[in-house]
Protein backbone atom coordinates (compact mmCIF):
# COMPACT_ATOMS: atom_id res chain seq x y z
CA UNK A 1 0.00 0.00 0.00
CA UNK A 2 1.37 3.38 -0.86
CA UNK A 3 2.06 5.86 1.87
CA UNK A 4 -0.40 8.32 0.34
CA UNK A 5 -3.18 5.70 0.55
CA UNK A 6 -2.28 5.03 4.18
CA UNK A 7 -2.28 8.74 4.96
CA UNK A 8 -5.58 9.29 3.17
CA UNK A 9 -7.24 6.41 5.01
CA UNK A 10 -5.85 7.59 8.35
CA UNK A 11 -7.15 11.10 7.67
CA UNK A 12 -10.60 9.73 6.79
CA UNK A 13 -10.59 7.67 10.00
CA UNK A 14 -9.64 10.73 12.08
CA UNK A 15 -12.32 12.79 10.37
CA UNK A 16 -14.82 10.08 11.24
CA UNK A 17 -13.74 9.99 14.86
CA UNK A 18 -14.07 13.77 15.07
CA UNK A 19 -17.55 13.69 13.53
CA UNK A 20 -18.63 10.89 15.83
CA UNK A 21 -17.32 12.77 18.88
CA UNK A 22 -18.97 16.01 17.82
CA UNK A 23 -22.22 14.19 17.21
CA UNK A 24 -22.13 12.60 20.65
CA UNK A 25 -21.25 15.91 22.30
CA UNK A 26 -24.10 17.78 20.61
CA UNK A 27 -26.66 14.99 20.56
CA UNK A 28 -26.65 14.97 16.74
CA UNK A 29 -27.30 11.33 15.91
CA UNK A 30 -26.89 11.88 12.16
CA UNK A 31 -23.43 13.43 12.57
CA UNK A 32 -22.46 10.63 14.93
CA UNK A 33 -23.58 8.03 12.37
CA UNK A 34 -21.72 9.81 9.57
CA UNK A 35 -18.59 9.63 11.69
CA UNK A 36 -18.96 5.90 12.19
CA UNK A 37 -19.52 5.45 8.45
CA UNK A 38 -16.36 7.43 7.64
CA UNK A 39 -14.39 5.18 10.00
CA UNK A 40 -15.85 2.02 8.44
CA UNK A 41 -15.02 3.25 4.94
CA UNK A 42 -11.42 3.97 5.95
CA UNK A 43 -11.11 0.51 7.49
CA UNK A 44 -12.56 -1.15 4.40
CA UNK A 45 -10.14 0.71 2.15
CA UNK A 46 -7.26 -0.47 4.33
CA UNK A 47 -8.45 -4.07 4.00
CA UNK A 48 -8.65 -3.78 0.20
CA UNK A 49 -5.13 -2.36 0.06
CA UNK A 50 -3.88 -5.16 2.35
CA UNK A 51 -5.43 -7.72 0.01
CA UNK A 52 -3.79 -6.07 -3.01
CA UNK A 53 -0.44 -6.19 -1.22
CA UNK A 54 -0.91 -9.88 -0.36
CA UNK A 55 -1.74 -10.76 -3.96
CA UNK A 56 1.23 -8.80 -5.26
CA UNK A 57 3.53 -10.46 -2.73
CA UNK A 58 2.26 -13.92 -3.62
CA UNK A 59 2.69 -13.19 -7.32
CA UNK A 60 6.21 -11.90 -6.78
CA UNK A 61 7.12 -14.95 -4.69
CA UNK A 62 5.72 -17.29 -7.34
CA UNK A 63 7.59 -15.63 -10.18
CA UNK A 64 10.88 -15.17 -8.31
CA UNK A 65 13.68 -17.15 -9.97
CA UNK A 66 15.87 -17.77 -6.93
TrEMBL record:
Listed Basic and acidic residues bias regions: 12-22, 33-53
Limits of the CsbD-like domain: 5-55
Compositional bias segments (type: Polar residues): 57-66
Recorded superkingdom: Bacteria
Location of the region described as Disordered in the Swiss-Prot/TrEMBL record: 1-66
Segments crossing the lipid bilayer: none
Pfam family, one: CsbD
Family indicated by similarity: Belongs to the UPF0337 (CsbD) family.
Protein name: CsbD family protein
Source species of the chain: Demequina litoralis
Amino acid sequence: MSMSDRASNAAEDLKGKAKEGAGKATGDEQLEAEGRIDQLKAGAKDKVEDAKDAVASTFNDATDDD
